[in-house]
Request: fold
Amino acid sequence: MPVQRSAADSSYSQSLERGLSILSSFRSEVPLLGVSELARTVGMSRSTTHRYVATLASLGYLQQDAATKKYRLGPRVLDLGFSAINSMDLREVSAPYLRQLSDETEHTVNLAILDGVDVVYIERCRTATPGQREIDLNLHVGSRLPAYCTAMGKAILAYVPEERLEGLLERVDFSPRGPNTLTNAESFREELARIRAAGIAVNDEELAYGLRSIAAPIRSQTGEVIAALNLAVHRTMGTMDELLARFGPAVIRTAEDISLGMGHRLPPV
Reply:
């Protein structure tokens, strides 16, 4: 049953509560539920429940069984669950490797996952290296940035299956953010192909003036790219080629170490 809250609690969303209550009604022992069953379970009228179910189904959180006309949890719920599990395991596994890379290079190291067309920062190891403050951009765990103009975003998007990538690129607003932002889908696709060939992504002042970064993908046990890590520097610390030569191998090695920690087995050399 929905939890009763005071009407004075303006931060509480009854609609969200109702939607989550419907999703929570499904259990492994009861994988299929009809609208009438759901209405009884969550304590709403059948018509109201039907509206919520129709919305959840259109968003992919529920699927209707063709034979029984009942509903089951949809793939979007699985995506959320796997993302949450991977993210929690990922932070724990990654922490010592990120700190080691930051200590070795004396530069800030970040870890992010993809959420829609954004990257979300889930870990940061900051340093006090001169010039670092100018490129920090007030970022913190939980910060979101457009994936298309960040090294970590490109490192993940380069390995997204084509059918899903197409839908994501349709949602991207390729607006200029820095001096070198890629501003159209065609050039962006070419960039993703280069990343797949090199195994490393760069951000050469695409997000903001003065910011350069190098990123490598992190894989789950199944080999799926689930995150990326980057090392960020100020433009005064070297050209992009110099930074790749100096830090690229360490960034790739750290990403591979984390992937191994997540259970992924690298192919033999």
User: Anything to note?
Assistant: The mean pLDDT is 88. The first helix runs from residue 14 to 24. The longest strand covers residues 225-234. Strands lie at 62-64, 71-73, 108-115, 118-125, 144-146, 201-204, 211-219, 225-234.
